[in-house]
Amino acid sequence: MSHLASIFLYPIKSLDAITVNQAKVLPSGALWQDREFAIVDAQGRFVNGKRNAKVHLLRSSWDVNKKTICLQIQGTGEKTAFDIESDRSELQSWLSKYFGFAVTLVKNSTTGFPDDNIASGPTVISTATLETVATWFPGISVTEMRQRLRSNLEINGVPPFWEDRLFANEGEVVKFQIGEVIFEGINPCQRCIVPTRDSLTGESYPNFQKVFTENRRESLPNWVNSSRFNHFYRLSVNTKIPASEAGKILQMGDKIKLL
């Protein structure tokens, strides 16, 4: 039976995920602690994998309860821990030295910092989709593909590309439910340069976008609303969670149903 198999949160936008057993829905429709923090430069622009490949070499581990983060540069043994609040200046100095320019860590506990401000809820993908897409790229494991695509919610017990049922025509939504939480599916997620790179080293996979696009076009189920694909470099589904769902809890193992 279809169920919620994994929940991934990204406490600092663009850095490593944490896996949790449950997640609380905020009044904004975001998940508590997902992309609550972001690194920005002096112009207020996000420092992320799209704009700076050094992000890929930055390992982070997060203590949810203590609100501490441990940072490590890939390939080194040195780890440095910071309290996200009381050590903010030291953390910003460490990050500025690493990137080679001044950065600030900003916080938004209301909405977080979503990639899509219209479809600002968690992204959804299926395990079978990840398994299928990984077969398009020799040498890329399912785990690595998961880390490259950085979705929030992973659904198991469904066929590949099942999540393509969760969007309709432009301007329309598809309502579905995970456990007690009602979602609105908005659109297929447009991918950026990040999935083309190794999640740990930043090394580019040759012709990744071309291979992806060709296979995505060929494997698109015949029942999919193809009008939402102005190009085929799209995968996973962007969502919104209505304000009525605030305070509800998503749990691993929750059942999924279309409404």
From TrEMBL:
Pfam families named in the record: MOSC, MOSC_N
Ranges in a coiled coil: none
MOSC domain mapped to chain residues: 88-259
Protein name: MOSC domain-containing protein
Lineage: Bacteria, Bacillati, Cyanobacteriota, Cyanophyceae, Oscillatoriophycideae
